[in-house]
Specification:
With 388 residues, this protein is of the alpha/beta class. It has 13 helices and six strands. It has three domains: 14-168, no CATH class; 198-272, Single alpha-helices involved in coiled-coils or other helix-helix interfaces, CATH 1.20.5; 273-388, Histidine kinase-like ATPase, C-terminal domain (Heat Shock Protein 90, 2-Layer Sandwich). The chain is elongated and about 125 Å long.
Length: 388
Amino acid sequence: MSFRTVLPPSARVSGFLDRRARTDIFGAGGRRGWFGALLAVIWLAYLATPVLQLWRQHDQPSAVAATVALAGYGVLIVVALAGLRGTDPRDPASPPAADRRVWPVLAAMVPCAAVLVVVVGAAAVPAVLYIAIVAVLRLPARASGWVCMAVVLAILLPALAVPRLAGVPVYVAFLPVFIWAVRQIGQRGARLTQLARRQQAELAVAGERNRVARDVHDILGHSLTVITVKTELAQRLMDLDADRAKAELADVERLAREALTGVRDTVGGLREVTLRGELANARSALTAADIAADLPDPARLPAGNHELFGWVLREAVTNVVRHSAARRCAVTVTPTRIEVTDDGRGLRAAAAGSGLAGLRERTRAAGGTLTLSEPAGGGVRVAVTVPG
């Protein structure tokens, strides 16, 4: 069996850029960081007009300083938003760790912003907000809060003390606090949502166990009650009507065998893994976790290695529910292949599921091949192929 990662051709270019920048933003959606950085730089282009005005006025020192500061500021924003690791609001297990490279980037952004404000004037003050934005997106709550407060003071105090900056609206100074508060509310909400999804999945499993317990209780409760009554009757009839007593005892034996068969069927559903049964369990778990499930019809499954495919589906769906933070999961089955695809965080999140090692051993024992890959739109594809 081989274990390899295969990226579709449509994802090679963006995947190359992400690897070069070591992008790990928003889980599997790292390319969103590039999109956000592009939008930020486009918005920053509003400063091009006052900078060009300096060149038209032949103020060479000021024009050169403003141009260099603006270009450097834009590069630093791209590096911060597209090249540094961000916090993941969907992981409730532990607080996110800050990427240490954020601090040098923030330190370099400060002089660039200062030069723009000094040379360009009040028009450049809103650009200082990018320091707070980078801190909010790339630092934990407490550290980003201190940076936002520093940005508030850096905007408010000069605006009050320097006549040249008096035209800056006061509310601009308090925008970093607003941005920080909105981010924290969003992160806490996302973590609570993820925690709720996991708890719902666990409740779904507990509900299935309770269903089995109820089935066993109903089977044994009814059967044992009837067996007890018929046994007592047979004992009383033993000396009075031997033939009827034998008939009652035969009925007791039949009931006992039926009860034993019912218990074996119920317990066997827990021990024996079938693709048909795992499809039902997968739909229940994915629905409980608020993940859209695109599953094949159990009544139209093709002939194949359904026991192994059942194990694949069970482990893959477990990883999707526990680790992926996905919104959609799709399953396709052919006689020799099963694929489970999600749109979650990607291969790094899939590696968090240690059950893949056991699945690898099962696939190897069956002579199959396990392939783990990232679809073009992000997420993980788990595929197992067996000989035809």
